[in-house]
Amino acid sequence: MDFLNAIFVQPFADMAAAPDFLLQVVWEGLVGGVLYALIALGFVLIYKSSRIFNFAQGIMVVFAALTLVGLTEKGVPALLALPLTLLVMLVLAVTIERAVLRPLVNQPDIILFMATIGITLFLIGFGEIIFGGENKVMITRELMIPTDSITLDLFGGFVSIEQKDLTSVIGAVLLVAALLLFLNRTKTGRAIRALGDDHQAALSVGISLSTIWVVVWFIAGVIALATGIAWGARAGVSFALEVIAYKALPVLMLGGLESVMGAIIGGLAIGILEKLFEVYWGQPLMGGNTEAWFAYVVALIVLLFRPQGLFGERIIERV
Amino acid sequence: MLYRTAGQFKTSYAADHALFPVRQDAILLGVVLILAFVVFPLTASEFAFRALLIPVLIYALAALGLNILTGYAGQLSLGTGAFMGVGAYACYKLITLFPEMNIVVAIALSGFFSAGVGALFGLPSLRIKGFYLAIATLAAQFFLVWLFQKWDWLYNYSASGAIHVPNISMFGITVAGPRAAAITQYYFVLAIVCVVTFFAINITRGRIGRMWKAVRDMDIAAELVGINLMRAKLTAFFVSSYIVGVSGALFVFLWRGAAEANLFDIPLSFRVLFIAIIGGLGSILGNYLGAILIVALPVIISAVPAMLGLPLASATVEHLNVMIIGVLIITFLIVEPHGLARFWAVIREKLILWPFPH
Amino acid sequence: MKKMMKTAALSAALAAGVALALPASAQEDSIYIPNLSYRTGPFAATGTPLMNGQRDYITLLNERDGGLNGVELTYDECETGYNTEKGVECYERTKENAVVTQPWSTGITLQVLPKSNVDEIPILAPGYGFSPMADGKVFQWAFNPPSSYWDGASMILKHISEGDLDNLNGKKIALLHLDHPYGKEPIPLLQALAEQHGFTLLPIPVGLTEMQNQSAQWLQIRRERPDFVLMWGWGAMNAGAVTEAAKTRYPMDQFIGIWWSGHDGDLKLIGEEGKGYRSISWSVPVPDSQLVQDIRQYVVEPGKSLIENESELDSVFYQRGLMISAMLVEAIRAAQEEFDTQAPDAEQVRWGLENLNMDEARLEELGATGMLVPFKTSCADHTGHGGAWMLEWDGEKFVKVSDLITPDREAIEPLEKQEAEAYAAANAPWPVNEECEM
């Protein structure tokens, strides 16, 4: 009885008893979720246009953030470092397209997936040689990101909101809006979506595969930079950040591999749910650290009912 | 010349289907076995045993297990590390609960625990496919590693959360634990690996293996020709996880000597997957070639600058090492996506035809 | 690229040494000191300054004194990335000619520990590893001077309770720790003390993948409102924890870390906001000491050091690295004198580590006055239990804010003995050094 009580009653009683704390938990989850969504978005774009399950998205986040911080450390002003970093990401995109993707066209999915793990390893070694392994401070001040926190006094308690978290949420919303506009309103954007729908048809109407791939990897690089800035502002920039790629995988599966909306909604949902579960169930009942697997188990359960994810394209199989 | 098949006539279907349709294959295998059983033990140093030979064998075994699932039955798994962990922890519990138990029996039994867990996490494969299935195995990966950390019964409530291999002897010879000699451990692992490989070759050539391959090539078509999908997929998960579990038990008991939960985390899974893919999916030989490449190469690369007297700090060497492995993986995938095993197959074809080009 | 060039250029001497070391170290004129270092991976941030310090101390001796009593010291790093698998490989690779092994991770220490009796190479794990290693009777080949984790836990509690642990009665103490053998080390002792003195212990694990994202852990701290938070953190986890603490507005003066959680680089990330954070430490940076001046003169200025900029010289971790090498070198020196040999072997260095006497007079001779707690090891006591000081972050650097604190050995010893015996029993046959008088 106690056991059932601890699972089904107590957590909700706790939530009701301290609504300010609940709000704080939800907010923390939301901020985490936004970042998951951003990474998942990078995955989705690449998957849509090239059927590549890009494991390297995580390391691209680290790489972009390190380049930005590294350039500033070398004395480049922040506002110049930003476009320079974008340039580096563009070079990276072109290199990946030339050296890895082009020779691997038409290979099975798993081979391409492995190739992106190869890219990950390469970037880890390369990045550590250039930037060293130290934990670096994100240049929040130079980028004019406010670092104070706002305290809301609510329900006899308080909810503390970091301005940099708020900035990253707003920044992410703007980025996603821009991305959606780009995908829906521009010629290149439409070409990307066309490739996602049907490779051969897209090729036959004259869409250049290699240009689109560079564009898509570059956009993924931009998203990686945004994620890197947001996450780096929270906890510093180091190679330990790379593991957030593992967090984006379940988000992706939950939302469906091809769906931009799915990545966003999946990211937010997983961010909030895993935080609630960890705080109200995981820590009191299971010894904590449930965030390591919670997202995967949720995604697995959802997939059992919808094998293509919540927003994915229906899988039609023919013999 | 070396591989001339002239003069070898097949007079029955049985001969055509034999394990070694060409006599030279059998001779070559014999040579490899002599190398493994006689030459290496006579020449290898302790470092070579512990850093090269034993890990290559154990990783090859793990990759063999994964290859049965991914290469033969077509089910992608990213949870190999955790299943190895199940084998290792099961073996640890068996050994500590029943200290009298023979270690071979304990290792053989621990495979069944991992097989059971594997089959359980294989259930979603009946509904989920491709990359989506990877999520099921990743769920297993993260959940199990978390469980290894939190369930203190598994590591006998030790404060550090790590498990230690006690000294275990068999017929008066210490085979596991800090007092075991490297050469004993090598022979022990080699014997188990040979036995498991023998079974794996036969199972993949037989009815079950054909069933798996049909499912891999197209599961709906396989179902239409009367293959029970559930049985095929679950047996694949079961057999694969059994082998992976055995390799996990060997990994800790015959090689590492101690382990903590993080050891079985996702990098281990990826490492085994690399071996299987670079070696060649759907091949038994490939696992060994892949393991030699992935395990031995970093050890050799990190020794090279020192040997040549190149002025590189060990951290830089390690960074370069990671980079080189990344590049090698990509290069291999580009040059031969079907893996090293296919390389060998091509060479063998060429040798059979040699000196004539066609 | 610049860094790479620098690394390449500066390590020329080192690597040339390494190249020759493999055949040469068996000779009389050099002593081979391998170090299982990590300058890569998620823990590089904290590992690098320590390794730099260790390396520079050896370089200093070779440059200034021409080695140790005329014998060159060959320092060789093998990169593990804090990965146990790599660590064991490095151990196997370096053990042949090694007089000591420095595993640099509790996980690797636990792996190497059972082998130490067989391979007969002493393990030097200053301030880390398995706390019961203090029992020299059982762990003949393992050394963790000058204080063990259990000593550390005991000293922190003693400090926050102002000397009497009963003052903690009814209080709640959270232990924020890395979910790894290292982070779990203090739990048995803290649990025992919690029962004895009536405080509540709340262990809060941080997974390796959650190091940079500890918001769940700090939400728990906010909900549970512990009176004190102790931290056993490492690598990227420290920086994450301190940032979150500032964000949660947890009072910094109730937040205390073990010695590995007192890294300048981590605290610099939050600067002023971290004011009041304390970390216990058995080493203190003394920027104007003779030793540091010599390092500057003989190692840094000729460009023989790997440090990124000179300010690193004054950091806690760099100077701790110096002290770690100092302990090792003193042990080798003791062995040289006792056995009247130029190049002592592993067995003899073991004797040296067992008869290490780092008293204040000796520290002064080394030019390191006040940089390390004085301690003395013996056959039965492989730790020395020198105690530690409390350091506090003042917004820019760590400063010493307490007198020497000593652990409550009476409370620790029984547990240490019990755990050591349990370890020996589980690893039977395990040789015990009966010659030691307790």
Itemize the secondary structure elements and their pairings:
The complex is a heterotrimer of chains A (319), B (358) and C (438).
Chain A (H helix, E strand, L loop, with lengths): L1 H16 L1 H32 L6 H17 L4 H24 L7 H23 L17 E6 L2 E6 H23 L1 H11 L1 H6 L4 H27 L8 H12 L4 H27 L4 H15 L14
Antiparallel strand pairs in A: 1-2
Chain B lengths: L12 H4 L6 H21 L2 H27 L7 H18 L5 H20 L7 H21 L12 E2 L3 E3 L2 E4 L5 H24 L1 H11 L1 H6 L4 H28 L1 E2 L6 H14 L5 H24 L5 H22 L4 H14 L5
Antiparallel strand pairs in B: 1-4, 2-3
Chain C lengths: L1 H9 L1 H13 L5 E6 L8 H22 L6 E6 L6 H11 L11 H14 L3 E2 L17 E2 L5 H12 L11 E7 L2 H4 L2 H11 L2 E7 L8 H10 L3 E5 L3 H13 L6 E3 L6 H5 L9 E4 L8 H11 L15 H24 L6 H9 L2 E2 L1 H6 L9 E2 L12 E5 L4 E3 L8 H18 L12
Parallel strand pairs in C: 1-2, 3-4, 5-6, 5-7, 7-8, 8-9
Antiparallel strand pairs in C: 9-12, 10-11, 12-13
Helix pairs in contact in C: 3-12, 3-13, 4-5, 9-10, 13-14
Descriptive terms for the model:
heterotrimer; B: 358 residues; mainly alpha; ABC transporter involved in vitamin B12 uptake, BtuC; two-stranded antiparallel ribbon; 14 helices; 71% helix; globular; C: 438 residues; alpha/beta; Rossmann fold; seven-stranded mixed sheet; two-stranded parallel ribbon; 13 strands; 44% helix; disordered N terminus
Protein architecture, described:
The complex is a heterotrimer of chains A (319), B (358) and C (438). Chain A is mainly alpha-helical. Chain A has twelve helices and two strands; from the N terminus they run αααααββααααααα. Chain A starts with a helix and ends in a 14-residue tail after the last helix. By secondary structure, chain B is mainly alpha-helical. Helix content of chain B is 71%, strand content 3%. Chain B has helices spanning 13-16, 23-43, 46-72, 80-97, 103-122, 130-150, 182-205, 207-217, 219-224, 229-256, 266-279, 285-308, 314-335, 340-353; strands spanning 163-164, 168-170, 173-176, 258-259. The model of chain B has no long low-confidence stretch (mean pLDDT 85). Helix content of chain C is 44%, strand content 12%. In chain C, α3 crosses α12 (290-300) and α9 crosses α10 (236-248). Chain C is globular. In chain C, 64% of the residues are buried. Chains in contact: A-B, A-C, B-C. The interface between B and C is large, with 44 and 52 residues.
